[in-house]
Write a structure and sequence with these properties.
179 residues; alpha+beta; 9-stranded antiparallel sheet; 27% helix
Length: 179
């Protein structure tokens, strides 16, 4: 009887140890799975905001940004180029610019990501600062409408603006003309 009792005790003890080991293994697996899930949640990143280029009025440019410009004293307007969105906007007299270029300061002004930004000339038809790059291509229109035949020069083309931080790019059409 003692032998039977001893054998039953050993078997029950052995069975209890097996159950404890199984519980510990299950607990470890669930913890490991939980940690893995947390890691994958942290990997997802928010996408960068798209570059936003907005047309603006020249009077939005602060006087401080235009300090030293010949424009106020330039009666024929030779020191300023205002690049408007299209020839139709030019004919209508829409006062919104895509780019405002002051040739005497060798600077271009754009409204990017909600603020007016000054870019310095870096080459022919190229402007840049530490945040943005601007370049444009131009060609002379083949025929001008009768409303603006009196202009001495007219250009149309594409403007490319790049945000340096994420290389986000915007390409816009433009038109410029003058006497």
């Amino acid at each position: 009887m003692k032998k039977t009792f001893l054998v039953l005790s050993i078997l029950s003890l052995f069975a209890c140890q097996k159950k404890t080991e199984t519980k510990e293994i299950n607990a470890k697996d669930s913890i490991t799975t939980k940690k893995d899930t947390v890691k994958t949640d942290k990997v997802a990143e928010a996408p960068a905001a798209q570059l936003n280029i907005v047309d603006f009025k020249p009077d939005e440019i602060t006087a401080e940004m235009l300090k030293g410009s010949l424009h106020p004293y330039d009666m024929e307007g030779e020191s300023i180029m205002e690049l408007v969105p299209s020839m139709k906007d030019f004919i209508k007299g829409t006062p919104l610019n895509v780019v405002y270029i002051d040739l005497s300061l060798k600077k271009a002004f754009i409204k990017a990501d909600g603020k007016i930004v000054a870019l310095k000339e870096t080459g022919k038809d190229q402007y840049a600062n530490n945040e943005y790059k601007l370049s444009f291509t131009s060609k002379t229109p083949e025929k001008l409408p009768q409303e603006i035949e009196v202009v001495t020069y007219a250009y149309e083309g594409k403007i490319t603006i790049i945000r340096n931080s994420d290389q986000s790019t915007v390409v816009r059409d433009y038109f410029a003309a003058g006497l």
